[in-house]
Design brief:
Layout: E1 5-13, E2 17-22, E3 25-30, E4 42-46, E5 49-54, H1 56-83
Antiparallel strand pairs: 1-2, 1-4, 2-3, 4-5
């Protein structure tokens, strides 16, 4: 199973490249598989390639769900450590 995540384009680079930001981390990716992408757009990224452009509202909803899952996991881990203390 593969996981592709939405990321925001922060810079366009030469040779179909772009710099994305996801959770404060920036990474260079390839835009060779998509056309018409601009700074500020969201793309679905998998193994260093943008696969498609994503509606900004859908991207924000997806990222919010990931953040909520992360928070829930942290709370569960904290509760488990307190229960074992």
């Amino acid at each position: 199973m593969c996981l592709a995540i939405p990321a925001k384009i922060v810079d366009l680079l030469p040779d179909d490249g772009a710099r994305i930001e996801l959770g404060g981390v920036r990474k260079e990716i390839s835009l060779a598989l998509v056309e018409g992408v601009a700074v500020g757009d969201y793309v679905i990224v998998h193994v260093g390639y943008a696969l498609t452009r994503l509606d900004p509202d859908e991207a924000e909803k997806t990222l919010a769900l990931f953040a909520a899952l992360d928070d829930a996991q942290r709370q569960d881990a904290l509760a488990a450590s307190l229960a074992n203390a």
